[in-house]
User: Which sequence fits this backbone?
């Protein structure tokens, strides 16, 4: 029986739904009080928070791959906003994508149906678009053991739970009533089926052949072909998302056996390509196999040295390199969805939810932050500090392995609240030294989330980007006025990103150390005052290595300071 925690986690991790909830305002204005001053405009409340940047401290490279997106090739107009450095072909549908017939199975997401990808949706279309847009492609390679067989391209589709075999299911596809959802008795009874209804059995050689096929079309990664391959998608959820072909919970041994074989097949087909894994869904999968059911049992974990699943996974790849001489895993990748109610994969929500969304980014790095969700109880109320945890695991168990988060979504992407959160996340990725990240479910290229990316990747409309070397930046209150800074190797300029997460104006003095600035700083701003463009503002004076100014509520401000 599934635990409520497990079901909630699966719902969050696998949701790909049309969001129809009306958008909430990004920052609702407080009601005007009666009493003295009523009837006239009161001055906005202004607080003061000090900021500082030390250009000689905390220096490390910022990977451009942290500004990636899932399915950017299929997001109309995104290339006009900014060049996406890496684009991921991933998600549940890719676990059973058959490159030989361009067919995939929807699994639990939509009535377990085989869908033939049409023009624009095929893997080759995806890679071709990425190449035209100068984006690197990250392609998911199936390793679940089954891929979709040939199927009609129009209704009625081939599906795992056809009405002809299972007539009394709880729900049927409204566009194809011959395909059911695979449950009976008011969703309480899960049906079983034969994998061969929809799929054909394959092994790691299928993944190797898939990579060889891509190399034959585009060349090796070293010669401009597909550069990155993921070891399937969220394997700890296979017995839910793809239970028609993989009903048994994944064990640590199965994860390792399939990962090892598939990674080796990929490296044989293209030794220059980077392998990314395990691409799993969230907290439960960081620590436990599906056999342990998110810690309801520890038998599988105990049988593998008592290590968290992710740490054990790294340990196995390290041992494989020692014995085989070849690095088979280049990026340790886990997905990250904040589990607090109403945050991930949703619209902006209430004022309380919007405030929670802005706080929830602390779970990526802050060792003093206890997650405001069920994770805090499951984790013994220990801080998650996930990026720092990933880097600690790689350093201990497989040194030299890079870190990635190839799915994340903090919600509210249609709103200014979501843009503020996204800008904060991108700043955190750079400061903490994450190596690769791709946003899941990006939405329209004209929505605020895209401007949070654009102010880092194309702030002047002519390809200018945030600096490539992170430097130390501090604030008197990260929760209200966040700051991130970097220098540009091309010009030596200092770029400083300042995010006012509050609804009020904040004044500040920014102090610069170990940097000789020009007399003025160029200012670019994205704010609730203009949600359809990044506005170049009047330059600010730099006097005695200080900049005194105010930052409006709900705004993202970039200062570009030339080197004298």
Assistant:
């Amino acid at each position: 029986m599934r635990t409520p925690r497990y079901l909630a986690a699966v719902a969050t991790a696998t949701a790909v739904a049309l969001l129809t909830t009306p958008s909430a305002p990004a920052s609702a204005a407080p009601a005007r009080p009666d009493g003295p001053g009523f009837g006239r405009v009161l001055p906005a409340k202004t607080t003061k928070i000090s900021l500082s940047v030390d250009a000689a401290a905390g220096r490390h490279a910022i990977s451009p791959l942290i500004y990636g997106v899932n399915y950017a090739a299929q997001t109309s107009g995104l290339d006009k906003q900014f060049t996406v450095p890496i684009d991921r072909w991933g998600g549940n549908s890719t676990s059973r994508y058959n490159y030989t017939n361009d067919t995939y199975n929807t699994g639990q997401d939509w009535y377990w149906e085989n869908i033939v990808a049409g023009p624009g949706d095929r893997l080759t279309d995806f890679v071709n678009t990425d190449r035209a847009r100068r984006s690197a492609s990250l392609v998911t390679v199936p390793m679940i053991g089954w891929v979709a067989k040939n199927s009609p391209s129009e209704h009625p589709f081939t599906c795992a739970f056809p009405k002809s075999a299972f007539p009394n299911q709880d729900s049927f596809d409204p566009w194809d009533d011959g395909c059911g959802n695979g449950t009976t008795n008011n969703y309480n009874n899960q049906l079983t089926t034969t994998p061969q209804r929809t799929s054909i059995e394959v092994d790691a050689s299928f993944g190797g052949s898939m990579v060889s096929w891509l190399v034959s079309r585009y060349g090796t990664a070293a010669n401009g072909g597909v550069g990155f391959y993921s070891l399937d998608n969220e394997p700890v959820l296979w017995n839910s998302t793809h239970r028609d072909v993989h009903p048994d919970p994944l064990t640590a041994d199965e994860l390792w056996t399939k990962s090892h074989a598939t990674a080796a097949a990929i490296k044989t087909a293209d030794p220059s390509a980077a392998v990314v894994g395990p691409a799993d869904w969230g907290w439960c999968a960081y620590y436990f196999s599906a056999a342990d059911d998110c810690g309801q049992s520890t038998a599988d974990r105990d049988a593998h040295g008592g290590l968290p699943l992710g740490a054990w996974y790294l340990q196995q790849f390290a041992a494989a390199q020692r014995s085989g001489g070849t690095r088979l895993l280049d990026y340790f990748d886990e997905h990250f969805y904040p589990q607090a109610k109403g945050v991930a994969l949703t619209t902006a929500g209430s004022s309380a939810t919007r405030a929670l969304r802005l706080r929830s980014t602390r779970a990526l790095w802050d060792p003093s932050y206890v997650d405001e969700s069920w994770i805090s109880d499951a984790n013994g109320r220990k801080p998650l500090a996930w990026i720092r945890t990933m880097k600690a695991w790689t350093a201990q168990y497989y040194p030299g392995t890079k870190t990635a988060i190839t799915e994340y979504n903090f919600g509210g992407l249609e709103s200014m609240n979501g843009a503020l959160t996204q800008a904060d996340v991108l700043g955190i990725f750079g400061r903490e030294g994450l190596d690769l990240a791709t946003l899941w479910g990006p939405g329209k290229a004209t929505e605020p989330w895209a401007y949070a990316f654009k102010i880092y990747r194309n702030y002047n409309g002519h390809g200018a980007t945030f600096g490539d070397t992170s430097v130390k930046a501090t604030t008197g209150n990260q929760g209200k006025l966040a700051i991130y800074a970097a220098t540009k190797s091309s010009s030596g300029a200092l770029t400083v990103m300042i995010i006012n997460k509050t609804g009020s104006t904040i004044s500040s003095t920014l102090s610069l150390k170990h940097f000789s600035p020009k007399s003025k700083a160029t200012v670019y701003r994205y704010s609730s005052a203009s949600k359809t463009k990044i506005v170049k503002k009047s330059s600010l004076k730099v006097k005695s290595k200080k900049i005194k100014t105010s930052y409006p509520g709900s705004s993202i401000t970039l200062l570009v300071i030339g080197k004298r």
About this structure: Residues 438 and 455 are 17 Å apart (CA to CA). The first strand starts at residue 46 and ends at 48. The radius of gyration is 24 Å.
